[in-house]
Amino acid sequence: MQWSLEKRPHTLAGLYGNPALKTYLTACAKQKSFPESMCFQGQYGTGKTSAALIAAQMMVCNNPDENGNPCCECAACKDIINNSFHRDVVMYDGGQMKKDDIIDTISRDISLPTRYDKCKVIIMEEVQELSTKAKNAMLKILEMKKPHVHFIFTTMENLGRNGFTSRSVQFNFQQAQIKDLMMYMAQLLQAEGLWDEAKLPKEFLYDGLANIAQNSNGSYRDAVQILQKCLMAETYTKEAMALNFNILDTETYVDILYGILNGNPDEKMLNTLITNDYAASFRMSYALIASAEQFRTFGFTTGSSYTEAAAKKLSSHPNFDIILNGFKNISLANKNGYLEKSDYILEVCDMVRKCKATKPANAPVAVRRIVG
Q1: How many CB atoms lie within 10 A of CB 311?
Q2: Rounded average pLDDT over 80-91
Q3: What is the DSSP letter of 236?
Q4: Number of Cβ atoms within 10 Å of the Cβ of 307
């Protein structure tokens, strides 16, 4: 089973990030009063679903501790942990169900009294995917304010100030920091009895986790999935990660970008940048470019000392504005979190041309295919 699902936290103590939410839910539990509606928004893999499930457990658990943490053993908790939803907590996916019928289903559900638990909890994932008709109907349901009925909405979009957020207690889930991702993975390895240099190479326990965190786009889910993949394939070194999974470290991305700026990009490196996991390559490259722009503007970055040195190196190059504008163009083309591969390749090739890195006649294979 995938660790990203199997190892999902079931208490606030295991939930990384968003300390304000944890403080809020603890206060609600102690007061035995939870809001009628909450809305969690942020990119994928930042803990929205885990937080929603934990909040639901806290509302219905039969044996919570003094701080309101669920026991994870009672029937109410087990029903949620096992994703059964056979009791009074139910979960819907706004992107999967028939978008208009879903409201009729929810209306019937909340019109009935609770069968097993203290209250009813409706978790609606990807609420932005509901049709306009369904959204309007849901807002009317929220205005009815039924006792002992709670809603938790999740969304990957920033809803701003709209009907759902104005009727809900809203929390934003930010991208995870590198150190938080590394700590989370270390915690998983410790729980599995693998945080041991006799079982895993020291290089992997430190440099390897850092490399995975850098390639996870601020997502705990992505980090855990890459970690499990490396463990199962016994892929522990930086070189093996690059060869087997196209997981490149920061130094490699700096070399690729600087090669383009210098006018002599390495063919293998350039092809890696634009033909493999292009979305991950874009995120890593753009993060470095953004750090370089920050350094050029303010004289410092918010990253590590190595990131600052790399930012200084890139931003001082006379061709820096070419790749800065190029990656900004790619970012503008990145609609709804999905990056079209063709847009990415064409823009990278245009950067190569402008930096006079290669000519069509002797361009790397991936570039020749586009310009030829």
Answers
A1: 23
A2: 95
A3: -
A4: 21
Q: Is the pLDDT of residue 96 over 70?
A: no
- For the chain, give every domain's residue range: 3-173, 178-245, 250-371
Q: Average pLDDT, stretch 282-287?
A: 83
Write out 253-319 in H/E/C secondary structure: HHHHHHHHHHCCCCHHHHHHHHHCCHHHHHHHHHHHHHHHHHHHHHCCCCCCHHHHHHHHHHHCCCC
Residue type (1 letter), 288: L
276 vs 205, residue with greater confidence: 205
- Nearest to 166, CA basis, from 336, 39, 44, 281: 39
Q: Give the pLDDT band of residue 285 (cuts 50, 70, 90).
A: confident
Distance CA 125, CA 108 (A): 19
Q: In the block, which residue shows the tokens 């190479």?
A: 201
Q: At what angle do helices 278-298 and 267-275 cross, to 10 degrees?
A: 110
Query: Is the confidence at residue 275, as pLDDT, over 70?
Result: no
Percent of the chain scoring above 70 in pLDDT: 88
- What CATH code would you report for 3-173? 3.40.50.300
CA atoms within 13 A on the CB side of 314: 33
Q: For the chain, how many helices (H) and strands (E)?
A: 19, 5
Structure tokens at 39: 């809305």
In 145-277, which residue ranges form alpha helices assigned H by DSSP?
A: 163-166, 178-191, 202-203, 209-214, 220-232, 238-245, 250-262, 267-275
Is residue 372 over pLDDT 60?
Answer: no
Q: Looking at the predicted structure, is the pLDDT value of residue 364 above 80?
A: no
Instruction: Tell me 62's DSSP state.
Output: S
What are the residues facing 123 on neighbouring strands? 91, 152
Name all contacts of 162-169 with Cβ < 8 Å and 24+ positions apart: 163/135, 163/139, 164/37, 164/39, 164/127, 164/135, 164/138, 164/139, 165/39, 167/37, 167/139, 167/142, 167/143, 168/35, 168/37, 168/38, 168/39, 168/142, 169/24, 169/35, 169/37, 169/38, 169/39
Between 59 and 339, residue with greater pLDDT:
59
- What sign does the dihedral 325-331-334-339 (CA atoms) show? positive
Q: In the predicted model, is pLDDT for residue 132 greater than 60?
A: yes
Contacting residues for 211 by C-beta, under 8 A, at least 6 apart: 238, 241, 247, 249
- What mean pLDDT value characterizes the chain? 85
